Amino acid sequence: MSASGTAQPALEVLGEGCVVVRTTHTQNLRWANSALTTNGDTTTSTMTAIAMDAANGAVSVVSGQVPDVAAATALAEQAKRAVTTADRVDAVQLVDGGVSPDFDAGPEPIDDPATQRMVTTVDVLLRQPEAQFGYAELDRTTVHLATTAGTRYRHAQDTVRLEASARTDDASTWWGANRLPDDVQAVAVQQGLRLNSQSTTNDLRPGRHPVILTPSAVADLLIYLAWSANARDAAEGHNVFSAPGGSTKLGQRLTSRSIRLFADPDHPGLQTGHRAVVEANSSMESVFDNGLPLSACDLISDGRLTNLRASRATGQRFGIAPAYLADNLILHDPAGYGDLDDLVARTDEAVLVNCLWYIREVDPQNLLLTGLTRDGVYRVRDGEIVGATGNFRFNVSVTDLLSRIRDASAPTACLPREWADWFTRTEMPALLIDDFNLSSPSEAM
After folding, report:
1. Spatial distance between the Cα atoms of 228 and 237, rounded to a whole number of angstroms
2. Do 415 and 439 meet the contact criterion of CB atoms below 8 Å apart?
């Protein structure tokens, strides 16, 4: 029976509400010291039943495994019984998100050619002379959403996560991708060059320096900005996008550069679903918005704060346009050009940071983050990498960072290092940032 076949009887129980069935097929490989250590091939299926009382603003959410129709119906009955004691929320009427022509089709497994490409990619890495450590994962998730307002939506989405580290006794480098590379050998060659650059060391004192961030490092910082772009918190004075007097900074210029930070379900290479699928209420999303159409949405356009993430109820409450982001994040700087190597070649003096990790929020009022550099910090002089330096702890306000962009490459698909467990679909440029605060040395490798 298809996932939609379990959703329909559950929906009939609810009276008013939604059913989300999510089926995920995952294949993964993990390796250490140039030897495969584990592999996996799993399929999981879960259902979330959401019972609603829109008139009184009440909702109940119950989730569980979905082996058959009886289990699905039992989850729906449990949700309906609990709705009278659920927390009250700001409610709006469900939208009719239309009917997908393939709604009755079942979940899609990963296809054999994709599996073979992953295996071939890993095999090339394992044959390199440097010790290799890494993780590769293919994921295909099929979502069925059905609501009592008439939405019958189905979407199958592929996700690729590929991380590879090469190490010697005293050097290490990391590379990641959100798609399988066409030329794996070129990746291996780049690993060798970066390791060789670490054979020469340069001292660098902590402080504020011009820093080149790779696309991966840029993604890790801007994902946190997107997660923090909360309209309700801004209107209530709780985050960096708050303005005096209970208003927000919507419309204010964040940088003199004409950057655009946005999500788009139709972005080439990063396509995602076209309907909001919400399984739990948060300060930015509401289960009452399930089935809402998604389109391109700018958080920043032409350097100005354009939207903050808000449900329809939040928008009505604060007079803010509701905004949902598709499952990707893209930064474009129209003045940027070339790739990372080109950006290095036209830079007189900077520190090149390969990737970031252990990122934590210090102060939401100015979006101050701290974290560590890892797996390669290099000195750039006269357009060349002249050696490596040690790792650092950094402290940076992400919104302030945007105002100090000096140069940028063209955007490229990239994998964030820190947030890859939760978010992979990013396209970012490398950025040259003035006065990036490398606050203290770190013993991280």
Report:
1. 13
2. no
CA 432 from chain center: how many Å?
Answer: 22
Alpha carbons 292 and 181: distance in angstroms, whole number: 34
Task: Indicate if 255 and 336 belong to the same structural domain.
Answer: yes
User: Is residue 50 included in any domain, yes or no?
Assistant: yes
- Spell out the alpha helix ranges (H) of 276-357: 312-318, 340-345
β-strands 405-408, 152-167 pairing = unpaired
Nearest alpha-carbon partner for 229 in 349, 321, 108: 321
Percent of the chain with pLDDT over 70: 98
Quick check: 388 and 409 in contact, CB under 8 A?
no
What CA–CA distance (Å, rounded) separates 432 from 440? 20
Residue with tokens 């009022």: 365
pLDDT tens-digit map of 399-418: 999 999 999 999 999 999 99
- CA dihedral (199, 202, 206, 211) in degrees, to 10, reads -80
**Measured between alpha carbons, how far is 302 from 440 in angstroms, rounded to an integer?**
34
Q: Answer yes or no: do 438 and 303 share one domain.
A: yes
